[in-house]
Amino acid sequence: MAPKVTKAEKKVSYDKKMCSLIDEYAQILVVAVDNVGSTQLQNIRKGLRGDSVILMGKNTMMKRTIRVHSENTGNTAILNLVPLLVGNVGLIFTKGDLKEVSEEVGKYKVGAPARVGLVAPIDVVVPPGNTGLDPSQTSFFQVLNIPTKINKGTVEIITPVELIHKGDKVGSSEAALLAKLGIRPFSYGLVVLSVYDNGTVFSPDVLNLTEDDLTEKFALGVAMVTSLSLAIAYPTVAAAPHMFINAYKNVLAVAVETEYSYPHADKMKEYLADPSKFAVAAAPAGGAVSGGAAPVTAAKEEAKKEEVDEESDDDFVCNLFD
């Protein structure tokens, strides 16, 4: 019979395993494991097998291992994990794409009943319709102020009812009613809380950013830099075009208000002296839009004019010989 492994030996084995994982993997997902069963966790392990390893353990043990390993190896970046080990959490060491691994983890969610005392992660709404329960069960609905009626010998809910609000604890009456209705309102699985990547820690929301989101944020940053540069008159690559344009506008304004002149200013002065030239300058654009419509219309008007003239002559001849 093999000797029983002591707690000290288990701690040493766990410490070696975690240290080897820290040395091998540079990417770690910190996940919450609340209400996750052993069978469900085993399925997740199978789904991630190949490029990811899930490690569970007591927070105090994990923190101690990380600190000791950091002192022995000089890897101070790994200490960023220590503040994240709060609550019922686990670690997923991975070499794969962080977004793909996060999405794979999210697939393994299972429905769960509303147990008494459980904090509701979402709002629970009981839909209207026939419940299939006999009239003797109406007491459950009356306690919870759910409007019902008897239809064909069964209890029917008249309107949808918000039974439990997010953040509230599930009571015994709510749990019993949902169980009778066969409603499993909650679903649980591993939830990614934080991401560690080569010493950097960030929110998992970053993994959902697309190229369009990055482009939009970059454009917003450039706009802010441009605004700041213009406000303090500090030249930057982003602000330089605007500075040149504003300077040219100032020079043009001075030339218009004074006798100083140069070719572009002369043209502007001509427009200001004779505003009708603005319309002349805009005329080619209007002609280009209308295309050949104007010549055709003119030709039709000319033809009508000739017909009117001929009819007038005929009438005059007839009247002459009457």
UniProtKB/TrEMBL annotation:
Gene3D superfamilies in the record: 3.30.70.1730, 3.90.105.20
Limits of the Large ribosomal subunit protein uL10-like insertion domain: 114-183
GO cellular component: ribonucleoprotein complex; ribosome
Superkingdom of the source species: Eukaryota
Keyword vocabulary terms for this entry: Ribonucleoprotein, Ribosomal protein
KW Ribosomal protein (keyword) present: yes
Signal peptide: none
The family this protein is said to belong to: Belongs to the universal ribosomal protein uL10 family.
Summary of the function given for this chain in its UniProt record: Ribosomal protein P0 is the functional equivalent of E.coli protein L10.
Annotated protein name in UniProt: 60S acidic ribosomal protein P0
